[in-house]
TrEMBL record, chain C:
<dbReference type="GO" id="GO:0033177">
    <property type="term" value="C:proton-transporting two-sector ATPase complex, proton-transporting domain"/>
</dbReference>
<keyword id="KW-0375">Hydrogen ion transport</keyword>
<comment type="function">
    <text>Key component of the F(0) channel; it plays a direct role in translocation across the membrane. A homomeric c-ring of between 10-14 subunits forms the central stalk rotor element with the F(1) delta and epsilon subunits.</text>
</comment>
<comment type="similarity">
    <text>Belongs to the ATPase C chain family.</text>
</comment>
<keyword id="KW-0812">Transmembrane</keyword>
<dbReference type="Pfam" id="PF00137">
    <property type="entry name" value="ATP-synt_C"/>
</dbReference>
<dbReference type="GO" id="GO:0045259">
    <property type="term" value="C:proton-transporting ATP synthase complex"/>
</dbReference>
<feature type="transmembrane region" description="Helical">
    <location>
        <begin position="12"/>
        <end position="33"/>
    </location>
</feature>
<keyword id="KW-1003">Cell membrane</keyword>
<dbReference type="GO" id="GO:0046933">
    <property type="term" value="F:proton-transporting ATP synthase activity, rotational mechanism"/>
</dbReference>
<comment type="function">
    <text>F(1)F(0) ATP synthase produces ATP from ADP in the presence of a proton or sodium gradient. F-type ATPases consist of two structural domains, F(1) containing the extramembraneous catalytic core and F(0) containing the membrane proton channel, linked together by a central stalk and a peripheral stalk. During catalysis, ATP synthesis in the catalytic domain of F(1) is coupled via a rotary mechanism of the central stalk subunits to proton translocation.</text>
</comment>
<keyword id="KW-0813">Transport</keyword>
<feature type="domain" description="V-ATPase proteolipid subunit C-like">
    <location>
        <begin position="12"/>
        <end position="74"/>
    </location>
</feature>
<dbReference type="InterPro" id="IPR035921">
    <property type="entry name" value="F/V-ATP_Csub_sf"/>
</dbReference>
<keyword id="KW-1133">Transmembrane helix</keyword>
<keyword id="KW-0472">Membrane</keyword>
<feature type="transmembrane region" description="Helical">
    <location>
        <begin position="53"/>
        <end position="77"/>
    </location>
</feature>
Length: 260, 176, 78
């Protein structure tokens, strides 16, 4: 429906805020099948290459006094490692490679998505939902394997007064099952919202070509707004990856120590 | 609602929101899984062990360096101690040498002074003797001259001077 | 202006849903403001609690994102 806004009656401004999220095949015009090479494939491949460049090629010298790239790689490593250790505890460290994988994928695709004309893989609910469901299922399985039925104690809050406990248990169960939803929609929604807002402002930018009188005011304002939102999006790109990873750690902690 | 779509892109995706286009889900999920598996293997096989090794190595190097620095510091302290000791020794030696030399010089000086005193005394004595001799000689000469002069004076006055009496007279006058 | 009542309702609903984002903004501001006032009183304890702050931000922000999502659904998907 957004594409209806581009009707000619407001002077030719074209609003396609959601077009940037369209999945299209790269080499053909046919339908998008499961194994079709699409722009999703391309940007995910670029993500993989960027991660390899940073974490593998960047550290290939193994220098004791690190260079610039190696410093960043070590910084990322130390950041995620400390996060896992602090939030999930010592026994959460063995899940560190998985969380590092998620974090690196999200943060690199968020940043790549900020390139002009890029496709943001993490803005798709399908992508984030798979990751969130994977975390959810893994955490639930870990919880039941480690604690058996005792894992259900997570929902039975023994600190609360007895009459309140069933109600709290119900709320806890609901919030437990809402976790993957909020986990995935938070990331996808943030990415989608930021990019759509940038696109809306970008659509106002060529106003000066339509009407000089209005455009002389609107065009600089919208360019300024794009710059500001872009800066915010750079921040959001990192923070959302951080939040996704840290929430994964929190859920993991619940699975490892349900009685805290 | 999204029936009156205008863009061709919309027609392709079939819905207003590309995120809700279920036909692309399988594609995205497939490639996502491939990507995550690749990243996981790259990280767990290559990158993370390498970075961990580098960090551990750096930690080791830092620890070693600190130990080496401690070592060197201890060595430096030792060397300083040795240096101070050597300095003190040298100072003591120098004091000893100075004292010895002073004593030597003093002894030599005393000896020389004594010798010089003796020489001076001897020379003084000799001088005194010579003076006495000269005085004696002078007295004799004076007597002689007086005698001669007296005889001449007497002769000139027309008298005949007896040598003996002149001598006696001169001797008597000289004694006064 | 073409369209029908349903579409009008959808657009009005989308606009109303956007007010939820204001709530999320208030919530996030509250979280960060309280964190900051606590952190300035006891700066030594602040470093360890930044993660907690971000979790709090994430939870309150998620609700704003939900309202944004509802708006988008009304705009594009209904």
């Amino acid at each position: 429906m957004a594409t209806e806004a581009n009707t000619a009656d407001d002077g030719g401004l074209v609003f396609h805020p959601m077009d940037q999220f369209i999945v299209k095949p790269l080499f053909s015009d046919g339908p998008v099948g499961m194994f079709t090479i699409t722009n999703v494939t391309m940007w995910m491949a670029l993500t993989v290459l960027a991660i390899i460049a940073l974490l593998v090629l960047g550290t290939s010298k193994r220098s004791t006094v690190p260079g610039r790239t190696q410093s960043i790689a070590e910084l990322a490593y130390g950041f995620v490692y400390k996060m896992v250790e602090d939030v999930a505890g010592k026994d959460g460290v063995k899940f560190f490679p998985y969380i590092m994988t998620l974090f690196m994928f999200i943060v690199v695709s968020n940043f790549l998505g900020l390139l002009p004309a890029a496709f943001t893989t993490t803005s798709h609910i399908a992508v984030t939902a798979v990751m969130a469901m994977a975390v959810f299922i893994a955490v639930t399985v870990i919880g039941f394997v480690k604690h058996g039925a005792g894992y259900l104690g997570l929902f039975w809050i023994s600190a609360a007064p007895l009459p309140l406990r069933p109600i709290l248990a119900l709320i806890e169960v609901i919030s437990y099952f809402v976790r993957p939803v909020s986990h995935s929609i938070r990331l996808a929604g943030n990415m989608m919202a930021g990019h759509a807002v940038i696109k809306v402002f970008a659509a106002f930018a060529p106003m000066i070509t339509i009407s000089v009188g209005v455009g002389i005011l609107v065009t600089p304002l919208s360019i300024l707004a794009i710059t500001a939102i872009y800066a915010l999006e750079v921040l959001v790109a990192f923070i959302q990856a951080y939040v996704f990873a840290i929430l994964t750690c929190v859920y993991l902690k619940d699975a490892l120590h349900p009685h805290h | 609602m999204a029936t009156d779509t205008t863009a061709a892109a919309d027609a392709a995706s079939g819905a207003g929101m590309p995120q809700l286009d279920i036909t692309t889900y399988s594609n995205q999920i497939f490639w996502l899984v491939v990507t995550l598996v690749v990243i996981y293997f790259v990280l767990s096989r290559v990158a993370l062990p390498r970075i961990a090794a580098v960090l551990a190595e750096r930690q080791g190097t830092i620890t070693n360096d600190i130990a080496a620095a401690e070592d060197l510091k201890a060595k430096a302290a030792e060397a300083e101690e040795a240096y101070n000791k050597a300095l003190a020794d040298a100072r003591a030696e120098a004091q000893k040498i100075i004292a010895e030399t002073k004593a030597d010089i003093k002894a030599e000086l005393d000896e020389a002074v004594a010798k010089a005193d003796a020489e001076i005394a001897a020379k003084t004595a000799e001088g005194d003797k010579k003076i006495a001799e000269i005085r004696e000689g002078a007295l004799e000469s004076v007597k002689e001259v007086a005698k001669d002069t007296a005889q001449e004076v007497v002769a000139a006055m027309g008298g005949k001077a007896d040598a003996r009496s002149v001598t006696a007279a001169v001797n008597a006058r000289m004694k006064e | 202006m073409e369209g029908d009542v349903v579409q009008m309702g959808a657009y009005i609903g989308a606009g109303l849903a956007c007010t939820g984002m204001g709530g999320a903004a208030v919530g996030v501001g509250h979280v960060v403001g309280n964190f900051l006032s606590g952190a300035l009183r006891n700066p030594s304890a602040a470093g360890g609690q930044t993660a907690t702050m971000f979790i709090g931000i994430a939870f309150s922000e998620a609700l704003g994102i939900f309202s944004f999502l509802v708006a988008l659904l009304l705009m594009f998907a209904v």
